[in-house]
Known about the structure:
By secondary structure, chain A is α/β, with parallel strands linked by helices.
Amino acid sequence: MARTALRPGVLLLVGLTLALGLLGALPWLRLGSDPVWGRIQAGGRWRVGMDPSFPPFEFLDASGQMVGLDVDLAQALGQAWGVETELVAIGFDSLVDAVEAHRVDAALSGLTFDPRRTRDVRHSIPYFDAGIRLAVAADSPIQALSEIADGCVAVEWGSGGDAVARRLLRQSETPPFQVQAFPSPEAALEALATGVCVGVLMDTVSLRLAQAEGAPIRLLDPPLESEPYVVVLPLEARTLQAEVDRLLERFGQDGTLARLEARWFGAFVDGLSGD
Amino acid sequence: MSRWAFLSRRAPRPSPTAVHRALGKGPFRRGPSVEEKARDESPDPVGVDVVRSPQWSRRYRALGGLALASLFLAGLLWLYRPEDALGPGRTVRTVNPKMGVHTRLTDEVEPWKIRRTMAMVREMGAPWIVEYFPWAYYEPSPGRYLWDHPDLVIQAAVREGLTVIARLGMVPEWARPQGTSELYLDPERYEEFGRFAAAFARRYRGQVNYVILWNEPNLSLEWGWRPVDPGEYTAMLRVVYPMLKEANPEVQVLAGALAPTLAPPGSEWGMNDLDYLQGMYDAGAAPYFDLLAVHVYGWRFGPDEPPDPQVVNFRRVELLREVMERNGDRDKEVAITEAGWNDHPRWTRAVRPGERIRYTLRAYEIARTEWPWVRSLSMWVFRFPWDQKSYQDFYTFVDTDFEPKPIYLEVQRYARGEDIDGAWPEQP
C-alpha cells in the first residue's frame, strides 16, 4: 500500500531532479558549442588581428611581413592547437571592435584589460606586464625604491614614470627620493648610465628595449603600476578563452614566454639577478 | 518599552472611551483587551498617574511617525541641497585670462565628480570651459525639458568662477527622420532647435553667455552623414541666431567650430575648413554670429610651425583669421574651442609627453601675447568620465579618477606665474 502511494511522488521527484540537472548543465552544454572554437577547429585556421606599428610586439620587417613578439605568440598558440595562424592588420583603435564584430577570432596586439568591455569581449590572462618599473644600474646594490635615499630618480618629463614619481612624492610626508625630469626616455636613461641619477622610472617596454640595445640596467620587480597585456576574444568564445588561458599558463611555466621575450628584447635582467 | 513611549507619557486627559470603560457604561461596554490590560497594569516609569487611552496612544504614535518622517525628509533635503554643497563662490587665479579647457561632463552622472572637475579646472588656472549640452538629452519630447543635469554642470562652473561656452547639438529622436543619425538636423527642424537653444539661453541668462551652434559642420559625420553645405549651415544660423538673441540679448553666438581638415574638393567626408568658412560668408553668415569658434590641433607639429593651407597645425587659425578679415569681419573675435596635442605611445599623430607639455604651454602663451583677436583657447580635453581605451585618453589632463597628469601640474605652474622657461628640462 505504502509503496504504491509513494510511486507518483518518487517519479515526480526524479523528474524534477532531472529537469533541474538539465537546467544547470545548460552553460556547460553551451561551453561545448563555442562557435568560434568550432570554426577554428573546422577550418584549421585562426584569424588574429594586430596593428603592426608597435615594435617589438608587432611591426613590419624589410619584406613587409608582420613580425614580433605578439606574432610569435599567436603562432605558438595556433601551433599548439594544430591550426594555421592568419594575421590580419587592423588599426589599433579598431582592434576590439573587430573582435566584437567577428572579423577576427582574437586581437593580440599589446592590448590591455578593459573592465568596461567585459560585457562585449573576453580577456585572457596576462602574458606581459608593460607597467612602470624602477630600473637601476646593473651593478647597483639597490633592490627597492625605498633604498634610494640621497640619489635622484630620472623620469621622462610628462610620462607615466613622471606621473608615478609625482604621485609617490605627493603621498609621502618626507620625500623618499629626488626626481629629475628629462625631455626624452633616452636622456633619462643616459642620466642613469652617467651616474647623474641612481634609478629611472619608466614603462617596461622602453626599459626592455633599452636592455635589448645593451643598456647595463636592471629592472626591479614588481612594477609600481601594472599594465598587463592580454588577448582579446569574442564574448561567446568560452572554449577558446579557456584554451588560450591554459596555453599562456603553460607557456609561462615551460619558459616559452621568457624565450619569446628574450628573442625580441634580449635577456631580462631583473632585481634578483644580482643576488 | 517602546523608544517613543515618552510621547504618550504626557497624556493628561482621559478619552471618552476610557471614561466609559471606567464607569462601565456607554456604547462600548466591552472588557479591556489583553494588551490594554497589561499596559494599564504596568507601573508608570516616572510615577505619573496617567490614564492611558489606546486612541490617544495611536494619535501620539501617529504624531511621532509624522515627526520622524519630517526629520527624514529634512535629512534628505540637507543631503541634496544643491546650493550649499557647492560652497562659496570662487575666482580663478591665472596669469593668462585666455586659458581654457574642454570638459566632458555630458555623461558624468555623479554630482561630486562634476563639482570636482570644475574645482580642478579652477585650480589649474583656466578661467574658460567649453562643455557639450546635447539637445537630445535635455528635450526628450517636444517642449518637455530636463534641466537637472545642465543645472548641476553650470552651477558648479559658475561657482568656481569659470566662464562657460555651451556647445549645443545632437538631435532628439522625435526631431529627425527615422533611421538618420543623431547629428542629422533637418532644415524643417531648425525652428525646434532654435526653440531649445532659446530655452537654454533664457534659463541660463547671466550664467552662460556663450553658445556654440553645432559642432564641426564641415565634416559629413557631424552633419548627419550628408554632404556638408556651408549654405545650409548658414540657413540654420539665420533661423536660430535671432531666437537666441531674443531669449537673451547678452548671449554671444559662436558659429563654426570647424574641424581642421584638408579634405579635397568634392570629398564625401568633409570640406576644407578654409573653404567652408568662405562658403559661410558667401552664403551671408556674417550677421548671424558674434564669434567664430575654431578647432586647431597640432598633430606632430609644434605651435610655432608656420601656417600653411596644405598642413593641419596649430597656427592654421591664422589662415581662418585671414578669411574673416578678407570678408570684412575683422572686428569679430575667435574662440578656439578645441585644440591640443596627444601623447599616446602608439598613435601616429602623437608627440612625446614632454613635447605635449611644452607645446601646450607655448600655445597658451601665443594666444595671450600674439593673438589679440583670440578671446579664449580651450584645450581638448580635461577628463573623461571613463577611460576611452584609445588615443583619446592621451589628450586628458587628469585621469578618470582625478589623478592629475604631469601636464596638469605644469599648466598649473604656468598659470601661477612660475618660470615657464625653466619648465622644460634640458638634456643632461
